[in-house]
Structures are given as structure tokens and as C-alpha cells.
Amino acid sequence: MSEAEVLEIINFHVANAMNAFAIYLSLTFAFLTAIYIVGTKLKTKQVVLVVSLYLVWSTAFALVAIAHIQAMDSLVQENADYIRAQLFFLPWFEFGIMITAAGILICGYFVFDIRKGLDESGKE
Length: 124
Fold this sequence. Notes:
Blueprint: H1 3-38, H2 44-78, H3 92-121
């Protein structure tokens, strides 16, 4: 591949990773907002359904972002002579896994925190 083709494909993977990560973040913040607004009003079955839906969709978009990051990272390593920006050589793959997993775990904490408040109030 020529230098221009390599850079174009890397840009493709970076753009797609950013799009998937933006969707993941949108889902995460929408979920957090919804769970704080209506979380205490939901029955246990409803919480399980909402949390399951969030986990499936957020994990799917996180994995898409991570797959593009991994592809970009492979291209950067294979074509290091063409890459002039040192930022491309950072551990983006590991960062992607860490940040998306942390976001999902933090959301789980908030759900249990809301539900704990519900259990203590004795409403359900």
C-alpha cells in the first residue's frame, strides 16, 4: 500500500471508532439520566429489562469502537515509517477497553445505588 492509502485507511478506522464511541457515550449518558429520573419508580423486572438493554447496546458499540481501534493500531504498527504523529503509538486499544468497561461498571454502580435507596425506603 502507498503512504496515502495507509493514512486514508487509518483515518477511516479512527473516524469509525470515534463514531461508535460517541454512540456508546450517548447511550451511557441517556441511561444514567433516565435511571436517575425514573429509576426509583421502576419495578425490579423493568430495571432488569432496561439494564439488559443498556448492557447489550453499549457493549455492542464499545466493541465496534475497540475493533476499529485495534485495526488502526495494527496498521500503525505495520506502517510505522508513514506515521509522523507520535500520538498514534499510544496504547489506544488498552485505553479503549479500560474506558468502556469502566463506563459500563460505573453505570451498574449507579443502578444499584438508586435501587438501594428504593429498598431502604420500603416502596417495593
